[in-house]
Amino acid sequence: MNIKSLIILSAFAVLSNNLQAQTQKKPSGKLHQKVSSFTANGLWRGSFEIKPGTEVPINFEISNKSTGGAGITFINGDERFEGGTVIQTTDSVYFKLDQFDNELALKIQGDSLAGFLRKQDGSGKATPFTATKGINYRFKQTGKPANADFSGTYDVTFTSPDGKTEKTVGLFKQNGSKLSGTFLRVTGDSRYLEGIVEGNDFYLSSFIGSTPSYYKGSFTADGKITGANISARGDTPFDGVKNINAALPDANKLTFLKEGYKTLDFSLPDVNGKKISLGDDKYKNKVVILTITGTWCPNCVDEAAFIAPWYKENRKRGVEVIALHYERQLDSAYVRKALTRFREKFGIEYDQVIAGKPDKQQVAESLPALSNFLSFPTTIIINKKGEVAQIHTGYSGPATGKYYTEFVKEFNKEIDELVGQQ
């Protein structure tokens, strides 16, 4: 590690101690305790130092909420994601990113902020973060133009450090030097990525409150792509080739019931301890959608944003939904907080139950008839007889464009057919 990196890390260590001390004093929660002329409202450019010498830029906006106080909105391409609330004290600002139980704890330095992304309880590793007001670019550009328009669909393979490969579909849209895109996986997509192209090289990033995402790589004139997903845990390289017909396996054929099973059976508690089962009168002779989910999961966030309003519009047709939550902590206080936040954010009116922690073994124990579980979320559709009609692995969200449109079309078609059955 060079001297510059040591100095930066030492400065951040001192700042972290100061912020920890302030956090223990519990900020008042009032946005209007401003220091001198500092005002948080406006457009900002932020940057995470995920490891020495590697920064991930993001854009966000702070504005007053109609319900009072101020909120932070993360900007990723076409997406505007409401990330949480803003609390300003005498010399600090706290962005409460409740969706993922995270916070940005920042010291005010003129029109700049410096601090850390961390868990709200202070546990785990903190990621250094700085932000400057009034800057609307994301990646700093050298002025070098893109060598070509690299928009299109690509077959892309990621290779993990242990040699395992993952087939994905890369979707890119370029406008001049601006680039947006996502990687479509069996487990779900990389959501909205935004960045630039200079020459043949590209840079993409995204952040909605969980972990910052960062991809960089190069296109070639003959339709190839190489690069890496960069993270604090290590880099995952990828390569691929342009292919208009690039596709993943059928998401409805990856997870299935074990031989001899037609139904699922469970009895799981909600946050009040009430046991909920498919055998309850509420679900008899109805089409039931089970979503295997978690509040920590970005693709589950996208699914909830679709399912919650869809349910409000369709429940009178004889359709019900149960969300089976697999959460990182299972103590009653944490689960109540996490599920209540999730419920309020998306306006959820269907039942939520606590099924376990987010690993395959926990899913197998709570749903023993299920085989080859691969992904959060997984959506299971049950017919009026209580039999499993369809199991859909992963979720292709709005960032995937036509893939999302096709999913919604097929989902509604399946429900229409099941509702119409006697």
Strand-residue proportion:
35-45%
Sheet with most strands: strand arrangement: 1-2-3-4-5-6-7-8
Return the CATH architecture of the largest domain: 3-Layer(aba) Sandwich
So, the CATH homologous superfamily of the largest domain? Glutaredoxin
Please bin the fraction of helical residues. Answer: 10-25%
CATH class of the largest domain: Alpha Beta
Number of domains: 3
As for the CATH topology of the largest domain, it is Glutaredoxin
Number of helices: 5
In whole angstroms, the N-to-C terminal distance is: 69 Å
Major sheet details: 8 strands, antiparallel, barrel
Q: Calculate Rg over CA atoms.
A: 23 Å
Low-confidence stretches: 1-36
Overall spatial form: globular
Going by helix content, strand content and strand pairing, the class is alpha+beta
Mean pLDDT: 92
- Multimeric organization: single chain
Total number of beta strands: 26
Labels describing this entry:
422 residues, eight-stranded antiparallel barrel, 19% helix, Glutaredoxin, alpha+beta, Lipocalin, 26 strands, 41% strand, disordered N terminus, 3 domains, 5 helices
Describe the SSE topology:
Layout (H helix, E strand, L loop, with lengths): L2 H22 L17 E10 L2 E11 L5 E7 L2 E10 L3 E6 L4 E8 L2 E8 L7 E7 L18 E8 L5 E11 L2 E8 L2 E2 L3 E6 L2 E6 L6 E7 L4 E8 L2 E9 L13 E2 L9 E3 L5 E3 L9 E7 L4 H17 L4 E8 L5 H15 L4 E6 L3 H7 L3 E2 L6 E5 L5 E6 L8 H19 L2
Parallel strand pairs: 21-22, 22-23
Antiparallel strand pairs: 1-2, 1-8, 2-3, 3-4, 4-5, 5-6, 6-7, 7-8, 9-10, 9-17, 10-11, 11-12, 11-13, 13-14, 14-15, 15-16, 16-17, 18-24, 19-20, 21-25, 25-26
